[in-house]
Amino acid sequence: MTTLYVLDVPENATVPVVAAQDPQVSVGRVGPYFEIRSAGPIVVDRRATGCRHAVWYSAVAGVARDSRIVQHDKDALRVEPA
């Protein structure tokens, strides 16, 4: 299971919203974090979130042990199963 954690602060609020547009992605909560999960890859388009670059690059709080970030640039965030 691919899992991404994003801190629940107003600046990051659109990241899980955009991620959840993929029907294979589920968004839940773990403490103060959004937990974004999928059986496959998680892909979030930065422009769709409306995040400015500084917020975008600081949005990731962590990934699960069985996941890895393979892209995190000005265009997208892509997390895949390890």
Structural notes for this entry:
The chain has a four-stranded antiparallel beta sheet. A three-stranded antiparallel beta sheet has the order 4-7-6. Helix content is 20%, strand content 46%. The longest helix has 6 residues, at 14-19. A hairpin with a 2-residue loop joins strand 2 (25-30) and strand 3. The protein has 82 residues and is an alpha+beta fold. It has one domain: Monooxygenase component MmoB/DmpM (Phenol Hydroxylase P2 Protein, Alpha-Beta Complex).
DSSP summary: helix tally: 3
CATH architecture verdict? Alpha-Beta Complex
Name the quaternary structure: single chain
Shape: globular
Strand content: over 45%
Class by alpha and beta content: alpha+beta
Helix amount, in percent?
10-25%
What is the CATH superfamily classification? Monooxygenase component MmoB/DmpM
Overall pLDDT metric:
97
How many β strands by DSSP?
7
Order of helices and strands: EHEEEHHEEE
Largest sheet: 4 strands, antiparallel
CATH topology: Phenol Hydroxylase P2 Protein
Radius of gyration equals: 11 Å
Low-confidence stretches: none
Count of domains: 1
What is the CATH class? Alpha Beta
Strands across the major sheet, in which order?
2-3-1-5
Distance between the termini: 9 Å
List keywords for this structure.
3-stranded antiparallel sheet; Phenol Hydroxylase P2 Protein
Give the helices and strands, then pairings.
Blueprint: E1 2-7, H1 14-19, E2 25-30, E3 33-38, E4 42-45, H2 46-49, H3 53-58, E5 60-63, E6 67-72, E7 76-81
Antiparallel strand pairs: 1-3, 1-5, 2-3, 4-7, 6-7
